């Protein structure tokens, strides 16, 4: 049968897609990889159909591989005999934990079909939250910026996993960028913060992103005739 990778959206239960809600309503078990995704899933399915999966907080690759193999062993019997869903915040194919499970399932349980149900991601939802318009013709680059990293280059950047905001901010400003930060955007868990003051976000939070735009960027775009 089928394992569905379902994107829950950025954390607001109302931003789950219609297709995502339909799948969650129909599958036998909805597997969740953590507390935040579980809380969103519970807005759509009863706890009796939730399957919790535990993953270690580690960078040890051998330990992580074993954890994903164990998770695949838990999920596969349900997906072989019926239908199951693995839910993740954002989109299952964009910087998601689902990719690890999918590769493990495909290797060790080839009889399971896999289908991805895309979800609203903070990578795109930031524009609404920060009231930013990325007009046609604009160049926008997505980068990771954990631990104080600040990759630069294009006129406009979206940096996610900004875990050391003050350090990243200083580097971006020195490189000629104006920066706005969003923390826990469209998330029902925790406090949503939108600010251009890095001191407000001095504490570490994985769910922090930055929109960086060069101060001298040209925002004039050609208009198409109607």
Automatic annotation (TrEMBL):
GO terms for molecular function: cobalt-factor II C20-methyltransferase activity; precorrin-2 C20-methyltransferase activity. Residues 2-140 form the Tetrapyrrole methylase domain. Pathway: Cofactor biosynthesis; adenosylcobalamin biosynthesis. It comes from the Archaea. InterPro entries: 4pyrrol_Mease, 4pyrrol_Methylase_sf, 4pyrrole_Mease_sub1, CobI/CbiL, Uropor_MeTrfase_CS. One of its GO terms (biological process) is methylation. It holds the Pfam family TP_methylase. Keywords: Cobalamin biosynthesis, Methyltransferase, Transferase. Its EC number is 2.1.1.151. Belongs to the precorrin methyltransferase family. This is Cobalt-factor II C(20)-methyltransferase. It comes from Natranaeroarchaeum aerophilus.
